[in-house]
Amino acid sequence: MQRRSFMLWAAGGTAAAAAGIGSIAAYLRWQEITPTVLYPGRSEGHYLRKLLREGTALPPPSRTLSTDVAILGSGIAGLTAAWRLNKLGHRDFLMIDGPQPYGNAAGGHFGDLAYPTGGHYLPLPSPESTHVREILFDLGIIERDPQAEKPYYDERYILHAPEERLLFNGQWQDGFIPTEGVPPEELAQHERFFAEVRRLRQAHGNDGKRVFVFPTVESSQDPAWQAFDTITLKQWMEREGYTSPTLHWYLNYCCRDDYGTRYDQVSAWAGLHYYCSRWGQAANAGNGAWLTWPGGMQPVATAMEQASKVRRHAGTVVSLTTTANGVEALCLELVDGQPRTYLVKARKAICAMPLYVAARVVKNIADYGFDAKRDTPAYAPWMVANFLLKRFPDELPHAPLCWDNVVYQEPGLGYVVSTHQDIRVRPPEKTVFSAYVALSDRTPQQARKWLDTASPEELLALASVDLKTAYGRDFASCVERVDITVRGHAMAAPLPGFRSNAGLKALREHDGAILFAHADLSGFSVFEEAAWWGDRAARLAANV
């Protein structure tokens, strides 16, 4: 069905011949483009499953690497751990990349045009996120007063206007929540919801802590507020009398955008945290501003690596065990499809990998209080398609292109313009549109199965849905190349009950030869949480 949809879009059906030369040219143009598809970790996963199925063993290690602290994973948690160790004067550490350097913070390039393959922005950190502010100050992103109420940021990284727009009823409008042509009674519900958000931002529990903050472990543990984690966001909306279809669509969109999961599945606590925890301010930007880079979060990841002076090594950890002297990690590299293994010995290991991986890698992880069947989070799949455009497509009148552009539909999440921050007298000739898709219209298991078997053309068809809606079939004539990144387990989904997950709590509190550090420990994937756990693990590893 997906392939048929792709062909119908490209050809315009049997009516293409009557639609003129432009439609035929668009059809031929799409026929020429086969996207490059990247599946981080799939080759290693398939190879290991093949070994298990055949009952064969990995080749013996060809060498042994020794270090004081081994950082296993190069995403934001691992990079933060390396950054903190270096800040503490601890120099003897080694990082094993994992399936993809920088993980969900990775990006790519079409020549000199950068693009994201994972996360693409960072909200201004709130006052409680002192660890994030310290990182940003060290990297020069915050220029002064990092812990003040309103730090001063490097303006190159503050999102420029126009920021966002929504294609609703065939017209672009400012902002993401529909307003144009929306009945007054619905608009009144919009205002009531955002008034409630403003109230909840200042709410405190009976323990004196703010209810919704980053890091989430600093949020109030008041049972009255914890009860929000027993229902879904949709159930909370219905309980509070919100019936507006446009408000329901908007909150569902935000859950899909942040968690890869629909609002009728996301915990109400997590859904409200999305709005109520993000209120950082800047001395030189308005409230609600964002930080962004053409390459998404990769420039930040690269800067953290450089600041940490970490030694990185390619490879994926396949087993992690404790020894009398510390830990041993067996690592796998696939070189031209052929396996090579090596051993890493260390006093401490910071396990900065997703928990569904750690559950298979860490020997006897149940001994740490983590029951893999009971405690492993659900994971949402994700796809990012980067379209290299040889020219900008034509826009509707009076509808300027924004940084983030969203279409009122599912399963797409809209598209981001990578050159938006590029300050020139004239726009660049070429650009990259990064289209995001959360496959929340099906179960995660169904989505992963489809992603694993879909052809590049089928992936392109799905990734192009929002762009087709925004520009029609003529968009194809603008496209020079497409790169698609598929992440079958992109992010942990905060379903009801995630705040009381006993296994996550046990790993968060563990201190020993193996230290756990990943956003999964908080139950969902965001920079602030990953950085918090990487920072904590580094301090424990350095005995601070």
Structure description:
The chain is an alpha/beta fold and 544 residues long. 33% of the residues lie in helices and 23% in strands. It contains 18 helices and 21 strands. It has an eight-stranded mixed beta sheet with strand order 1-20-16-19-18-17-9-10, with helices on both faces. Strands 2, 3, 12, 13, 14, 15 and 21 form a seven-stranded mixed beta sheet that branches. Helix 4 packs across helix 18. Mean pLDDT is 92; it is low at 1-24.
Low-confidence stretches: 1-24
Strand content: 15-25%
Helix content: 25-40%
Report the major sheet.
Answer: 8 strands, mixed
What is the strand arrangement across the widest sheet? 1-20-16-19-18-17-9-10
Mind sketching the topology for me?
Layout: H1 2-11, H2 21-32, E1 36-38, H3 42-54, E2 64-72, H4 76-87, E3 93-96, E4 107-110, E5 113-116, E6 122-123, H5 130-138, E7 142-144, E8 152-153, E9 164-168, E10 171-174, H6 184-201, H7 223-226, H8 233-239, H9 245-259, H10 268-276, E11 290-291, H11 298-308, E12 311-313, E13 316-323, E14 326-335, E15 338-351, H12 355-361, H13 372-375, E16 378-389, E17 404-407, E18 412-417, E19 431-438, H14 444-453, H15 456-463, H16 465-471, E20 479-493, H17 502-509, E21 514-516, H18 527-541
Parallel strand pairs: 1-20, 2-3, 2-15, 3-12, 9-17, 15-21
Antiparallel strand pairs: 4-5, 6-11, 7-8, 9-10, 13-14, 14-15, 16-19, 16-20, 17-18, 18-19
Helix pairs in contact: 1-2, 1-15, 4-11, 4-18, 8-10
